[in-house]
Specification:
Blueprint (H helix, E strand, L loop, with lengths): L8 E4 L2 H11 L3 E6 L4 E6 L2 E7 L18 E5 L3 H10 L6 E10 L2 E11 L5 E12 L2
Parallel strand pairs: 1-4, 5-8
Antiparallel strand pairs: 2-3, 3-4, 6-7, 7-8
Length: 137
């Protein structure tokens, strides 16, 4: 396994609950786990995240729900419909309903079909599928 150059490590209030959410609801794969530390390294379609039970080892301040205020994690998947189906099967709420957005990059537009959810700790996860690009007129 190759490690990405940037891998977010998310502090979670209930490790088992978060691990179940990421693996059973969203389909992430456990790459490795340190049960004694309540830590897991997980991946989905090339995206990598670490989750660890709050331990205050590297705490920059008091954590309050929702964790990660001001950040969302963009995760590319082949099809958001697969993710939406998994969420529906588990009666998990959608924070921002699916929509198509086009973002300008220099002289072109990059297309995303995307939606957002909050994980059990309130971290925002933005799943998207690539719609390609268009030249600006």
């Amino acid at each position: 396994m190759k490690f990405n150059k940037l891998i977010p490590e998310l502090s979670v209030a209930d490790f088992e609950k978060s691990l179940d959410f990421y693996t059973k609801v969203l389909g992430f794969k456990v790459e490795y786990e340190r049960k004694e530390s309540k830590f897991a390294f997980i991946s989905l379609s090339g995206s990598q995240i670490m989750i660890e039970q709050v331990n205050n080892a590297w705490s920059a301040g008091e954590l309050q729900y929702p964790f990660g205020r001001g950040v969302n994690f963009q995760i590319e998947v082949k099809s958001i419909n697969i993710m939406l189906e998994l969420l529906r099967e588990n009666n998990y709420p959608i924070f921002v309903e699916p929509q198509e957005n086009w973002y300008r990059q220099n002289n072109q537009l990059l297309g995303n079909k995307e939606f957002l959810i909050k994980d059990p700790d309130g971290y925002l996860l933005r799943f998207f599928e690539n719609l390609g690009n268009k030249k600006l007129k």
